[in-house]
Write a structure and sequence with these properties.
Elements (H helix, E strand, L loop, with lengths): L2 H10 L4 H15 L1 H5 L1 E7 L2 E6 L2 H9 L1 H12 L6 E6 L4
Parallel strand pairs: 2-3
Antiparallel strand pairs: 1-2
C-alpha cells in the first residue's frame, strides 16, 4: 500500500473519499510531480495541512516554500482552505 493510500485512509474518518481525492490532486498540482513523490498528506487540523516528507533536507526546503505552496494549494482548491502547511519527517523505514 502506498503512502498516499495510507494517508487517504487516515483522513477518511473525517472527510469523504471525494474530498480526499480532490485534496490529493490539488496537492500534486500545487507542488509538482517530484515533490509529490517525496511527500504524503498526513492530517488536516482545521486550516492546517500536515505533510510528511522523507528526510530533513526535504523538510527544510519545503518549509522555505510554505507560503508559496499554501497559496498554490488554495488556488487549486478554489478557496482559502489552508492558512499553513506543516512539514514533518516520516518515520524511518
Amino acid at each position: 500500500m502506498s503512502e498516499i493510500s495510507r494517508s487517504i485512509e487516515k483522513l477518511i474518518h473525517d472527510r469523504s473519499a471525494a474530498e480526499n481525492l480532490l485534496l490529493s490532486k490539488a496537492w500534486r498540482n500545487s507542488c509538482g510531480a517530484i515533490i509529490y513523490s517525496r511527500t504524503s498528506i498526513w492530517s488536516i487540523e482545521k486550516d492546517l495541512l500536515v505533510i510528511k516528507v522523507e528526510d530533513e533536507r526535504w523538510r527544510k526546503a519545503l518549509k522555505g516554500m510554505e507560503k508559496e505552496l499554501t497559496s498554490r494549494l488554495n488556488e487549486a482548491l478554489g478557496e482559502e482552505k489552508f492558512k499553513q502547511i506543516r512539514f514533518i519527517l516520516a518515520s524511518p523505514r
